[in-house]
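ugh ok fine here u go
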Amino acid sequence: MQGLFAAAALIGKVLLARGDTVAVAESAAGGLISAALLSVPGASGYFRGGDVIYTAAARSAFGISSEDMHGMRSASEPYARLMAQTARLRLHATWGLAETGAAGPSGNRYGDQAGHVCVAVAGPVLKSRVIETGHGDRVVNMLAFAESALRLLAEALDVELPPNE
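structure:
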């Protein structure tokens, strides 16, 4: 868990120094991305807000309609990119950061195994990737998902984070 907070501290310093802001939309990480970013003193200078989009009702309230979802499914890179872009636009942030996956202990209804996650960042650059942890430990996966999202944001910011522990 220390790696998660250490990554957030480095990212927070960079965001503050640049005057950039971030908005978060997360799912299987359950708020850990936002918690890590908010653990940094001065977070109010860069953190615009975050939502945990865990259900269809939450997705709709967040502003993603069935029409927006046409041709895509949850726990996919296109959906992660849509979440990141929506968070960025809704909260007028420089960066949108999103995560969607299957924490475990079992997979999801789309056939993804536990440990499958898609992370995305939207802003001056748009990036996304799929990560597979290979196991079904829910808490360990949630932490890995959050750290993966922060690592992708760091990459977009051109910030080098220490290797995973």
